[in-house]
Amino acid sequence: MGEEDYYLELCERPVQFEKANPVNCVFFDEANKQVFAVRSGGATGVVVKGPDDRNPISFRMDDKGEVKCIKFSLENKILAVQRTSKTVDFCNFIPDNSQLEYTQECKTKNANILGFCWTSSTEIVFITDQGIEFYQVLPEKRTLKLLKSHNINVNWYMYCPESAVILLSTTVLENVLQPFYFRAGTMSKLPKFEIELPAAPKSTKLSLSERDIAMATIYGQLYVLFLRHHSRTSNSTGAEVVLYLLPREGACKKMHILKLNRTGKFALNVVDNLVVVHHQDTETSVIFDIKLRGEFDGTVTFHHPVLPARSIQPYQIPLAGPAAVTSQSPIPCKLYSSSWIVFQPDIIISASQGYLWNLQVKLEPIVKLLPDKGRLMDFLLQRKECKMVILSVCSQMLSESDRATLPVIATVFDKLNHEYKKYLDAEQSYTMAVEAGQSRSNPLLRRPVRTQAVLDQSDVYTHVLSAFVEKKEMPHKFVIAVLMEYIRSLNQFQIAVQHYLHELVIKTLVQHNLFYMLHQFLQYHVLSDSKPLACLLLSLESFYPPAHQLSLDMLKRLSTANDEIVEVLLSKHQVLAALRFIRGIGGHDNISARKFLDAAKQTEDNMLFYTIFRFFEQRNQRLRGSPNFTPGEHCEEHVAFFKQVFGDQALMRPTTF
């Protein structure tokens, strides 16, 4: 399989740590995404590495027995280590604070600590088999203060650091889950819910395994993912992933079912809002996107994999050491190894090889694997790094080899402009709220974030349309149809069309002498009125005489002041057009000769200058009986220029009656 076929890859720069062995124990902290390598209980050193910090934290601690769990508080301020089932030890890593260890025993009698989670830089939760205890750590006093506790039988627990929610498994079947939410010193109990276990014969005791549950944020909402190895309905084969939405308020609700159509060992990741399901037996993975349309049965939506199953892209283990040593070929990494451990959202750890990777989605290969352009766009528009891929898809569908039909092109443009319009509306609402002074009363008011899915007109013009109209091999009717399709889509979403798109249409029509079509587009207001467009029409007068009148009509419809129209024309060096316009409205007796002569001279067209100069000489003769300019008109330099180019004899002689 070529590299272009793999849509999942391991990150280029993994976090490397000392491999797990009898002397070195490896721990992973999901909140800080840190790997701890603890040698001989810490006596011969602890090395902590995270994906962002390239400088590992190293320290030693006394070997006081086997380490069960070790984690830093947020911002690496305080270290917590669990060595027994009753206590957790703490050590400050704050400058000027005592480095001496202090200990906290769990409050509930006869309870065993299953583990602990930091919810902030100084707040920690102990999870015991009899409930949870929420503490505030006071590092300067080297002590802990119990903030709140809750008694409940606990089988196992799970923590989602992004949403600060802890899930406790309760009851004999372990399938009743009790969530708790933590924020700024408070602990809130959310409604508990039951995970439906698959139907099983009476003799087998089925319980919910911690291995089959994951928690992750997908499209900004927290979901509990349950890997059900056998469907509840006996007629359907294969495992499925059930997604329960866990809201801040209200009950947990079963929302989606991802059909895997196979059985065996699975592992789950979430990358870029996609649920990735790894299958160990076939050494392949599939991805699901819950935003894409699925089959809704009235209560839940069923989804199938977006793409055919593929392996993660083969990975070479980078060799460390001097260049001389690295001349040997890199070792291929064993993918889907039984020693892999998967953490949410996108982490894969190989403890035996000493690597931590982030799983990544590659968008380019997906373009070839998803032939349905509408579905492809729906998929790409939800991805974080989608802009350049979408632009390349647009260019590709307008290329000679992969040319799409107009209805498909229209669908793609509509999907782009739907996102564009959503952003424009949000931006406008925000601006209006700020102008109305709501930003002071509403601290939650935030400027909308412009994601890569927002492709505006300049993006499409620069990267797609301007190159497309230059293609000589394209039938011009198709080119014009595509341009008009994009303009139609913008109009449909009530987005003001930028004048450069209209200019592109007009230039293409003129290039192919399609003046009748241009006339119709203007007559029926297919092309919106604008001053730049009116100026462009004026410049076409020599090719197409009616363009002059079309342009003036447009300027008048825009309620442009007459002197402003003249200024616009002169700025575009349309000196004769400006003069004709001013004559047409009868204002030619009052205009400044110097302004027109300046403009004519700037064109460096001597015959044009001659024509304009002669016009004003004739006006002077008619109004004052002499062709000469008065000193007040400040035209001396123009008279001198006229003499220099055409000679004294070319000046008009006064006519006497």
Automatic annotation (TrEMBL):
One GO biological process term: autophagy
Residue span(s) of domain Regulator of MON1-CCZ1 complex N-terminal: 26-144
Keyword flag Membrane: yes
Entry GO terms, CC: late endosome membrane; lysosomal membrane; Mon1-Ccz1 complex
Pfam family, one: RMC1_N
Keyword Chloroplast: no
UniProt entry keywords in alphabetical sequence: Autophagy, Endosome, Lysosome, Membrane
Domain Mic1: 383-631
Family affiliation: Belongs to the RMC1 family.
Function recorded in the entry: Component of the CCZ1-MON1 RAB7A guanine exchange factor (GEF). Acts as a positive regulator of CCZ1-MON1A/B function necessary for endosomal/autophagic flux and efficient RAB7A localization.
Record's protein name: Regulator of MON1-CCZ1 complex
Gene assigned in the entry: RMC1
